Amino acid sequence: MSQADPQAAVTAYWSARAPLFDGVASHVAQRDLWRTVLEAAFEADGPRNVVDLGSGTGACALIAAGLGHRVRGYDASPGMVAAAHAAAKAAGVEASFETALIGDIPAEDSSADIVTLRNVLWTLEQPMQALQTAHRLLRPGGRLVVSDALWSVAPHYRSTYAPELVARLPLHDGITEPAMRLMLEAAGFSTVRAWQQLFPASPYPGDVPLFVLSAGRG
Fold first, then answer.
1. Which InterPro entries does the UniProt record give (predicted)?
2. pLDDT for the residue 188
3. C-beta of residue 44 within 8 angstroms of C-beta of residue 114
4. What is the per-residue pLDDT across 132-145, written as a single tens digit (0 to 9) for each?
5. Over the chain, what HEC string results?
6. Is 193 left (phi over 0), alpha (psi -120 to 50) or beta?
7. Which of 144, 151, 155, 169 is the most exposed place for a label (fewest CB within 10 A)?
8. CA angle (149 as vertex; 143, 154 as ends), nearest 5
9. Cβ(70)–Cβ(50) below 8 Å
10. From edge to edge, which strands make up the β-sheet containing 49-53?
């Protein structure tokens, strides 16, 4: 398997799922709860420049845009980007979406006040690269909001990747909050705060343990 194969396989998988993904996604069924949690985690007292990495169908991006922020979303899957455009139009909110790998985001350094990463790290061969990209894009004093979960608790909510692809994804089984805090520290973030306690219960069927963390770029 070449170095390019894992990303190509992941991109193809999510492009195939894009047309029907929102029909089974928790961010649609629990939209109001996610809005409450993300609004709190943003801690913004006015419109901010938000970059959403691994946007998918626009879960975080559309919530951020609905809160009045200026939003740019990026995803490697053209199918997901098309779905995000359609979702923004249907919701009547303004957000731009582009197809791009996380390591090649066409945005200037220090151009974002907030970067969001929701359920992205487990899909990546190099998850630390995503945190480093977020750090690069944030202005000094900016904030990363990252959410993921321990997917091994309920594996049927993960993927049907081929075994050889799974072996290349270090966080395919998910990640715990303590492990995420260590990754954030290694990527240069500080002042980490948890927000998942604002959910009355896990938004994922099966009570999958999740975290929503904010972290500052010094």
1. Methyltransf_11 (IPR013216), SAM-dependent_MTases_sf (IPR029063)
2. 97
3. yes
4. 999 999 999 999 99
5. CCCHHHHHHHHHHHHHHHHHHCCCCHHHHCHHHHHHHHHHHHCCCCCCEEEEECCCCCHHHHHHHHCCCEEEEEECCHHHHHHHHHHHHHHCCCCEEEECCHHHCCCCCCCEEEEEEECCHHHCCCHHHHHHHHHHHEEEEEEEEEEEECHHHCHHHCCCCCHHHHCCCCCCCCCCHHHHHHHHHHCCEEEEEECHHHCCCCCCCCCCCEEEEEEEEC
6. beta
7. 155
8. 165
9. yes
10. 96-99, 70-75, 49-53, 112-118, 138-149, 210-217, 189-194
CA distance 12 to 158: 16
Is residue 182 over pLDDT 70? yes
Across residues 155-165, what is the average pLDDT? 71
Q: What angle (nearest 5°) sits at the alpha carbon of residue 141, between those of residues 65 and 136?
A: 80
Residue 92 Rama label (left phi>0; alpha psi -120 to 50; beta):
left
Residue 22: pLDDT over 50: no
Helix-helix angle 59-66:31-42, to 10 degrees: 70
Residues 4-217: name the CATH superfamily. Answer: Vaccinia Virus protein VP39 (3.40.50.150)
Predicted structure pTM score: 0.89
Give me the residue label for tokens 């195939």: 16
